[in-house]
Amino acid sequence: MRVARFVSALTFGVSAILPAAAAAQPTVSGISGTVGNGQTITISGASFGTKTTAAPLISEDFADGLLDSKIVVRGGTFALNDDNLRHGFSTHNARADYKNSNGYYFGYDNGTAPKWYVQYWIKLASNWHWGTSTFGGGDDGLANIKFFRLFPTGSRTYSDVGYSTHGFDGGNILRFVENGAQTYLNQNAQTYFTLGTWHQVQVAFGENSGIDQPDGTLKLWIDGVQRDSITTLVTNVGADGPAINKRPYIVGFYDSWSPSDASVANMYAYYSDLYIDTSWSRVELGNAATYAASTHRETMIPTVWSAASISAKIAQGTFNSGDTAYVYVVDSNGAVNASGFRVTVGGTGPTAPRPPTNVRIIR
């Protein structure tokens, strides 16, 4: 596998993820406030765990027309766009041309961490053309797309981890550790990223506890469906040197073998609602009564976090007012409430029935 090499002057730290004692999964017992876009609700319950900084490291919806200064743009020129918006509350998205360059994608360079949660939404234009041949072939552009990748900082370009989709192998998804395990998932990503439709990518990553230790975590969801989950991953291979933490270097689509050979003038991908954090703790709104069954999930923005109470700003996304939805709290270990707490979008959670009036009891 070809690796994009880079040099950074950033410093880095190394820490290990120690095995956590078994803890109760979160439970949600109540919601106060209106479940509407931009509104803040308070979630009551138990076993939410701790989150030192309630807000995520990065939450970018492009609404103000400015890019969060913590986000790095790689591969091409960043362009804001105001068509093909993901939902009715959107005012802008980001548009990248994958015909005339690698497109572009996002990253974070301000430090490393042992845990990451990353989310983005992407829409491929209807004229998108997946490449079909291996490197150097007549149709290799967009045949090797890294759609999530972590790198160390500094001169260390190995020990990188991520996912790619290979058009030369029928769109198969590869989970890779550079110089380590390379595992095809035997899933065709092209069927997940249907053209002309917005899709959500979510990834949870945790470093292993040391060199060659098989206890690293990598999980992938596309549109709420878990496509991969491994908790025995060696994320620091002994041949690569000392254990080292990483950071999200590729958030989005990187065309390893650009340009595309499609006979079109341009080939756009659109991005919306980036969410990057150094904790797995988060709050989501789902469309089903269990987390696993929720194929539409919107991530809220927490502002206050304690073990029994969370305040979060609603990102309604494509939920409509009047829809039934379910609130989920994911803790720092990835545990989530088994049953979602039912709410009405544009309203609140369920309330106890009022006592009857004008009732006469006959004895």
Overview of the molecule:
The protein is built from no helices and 23 strands. The protein has 363 residues and is an all-beta fold. It has a domain at 58-277: Jelly Rolls, CATH 2.60.120. Strands 3, 5, 6, 8, 13, 14, 15 and 17 form an eight-stranded antiparallel β-sheet that branches. The chain has a five-stranded antiparallel β-sheet with strand order 12-11-10-9-16, with no helix packed on it. A four-stranded antiparallel β-sheet has the order 1-2-21-20, with no helix packed on it.
Large-scale geometry: globular
Largest beta-sheet details: 8 strands, antiparallel
CATH topology of the domain at 58-277, what is it called? Jelly Rolls
Radius of gyration: 22 Å
Q: Report strand %.
A: 35-45%
Alpha-beta classification: mainly beta
Question: Which descriptors would you attach to this protein?
Answer:
single chain; mainly beta; Jelly Rolls; five-stranded antiparallel beta sheet; globular
Care to give the gist of this entry?
This protein has 363 residues and is mostly beta strands. The chain contains no helices and 23 strands. The chain is globular.
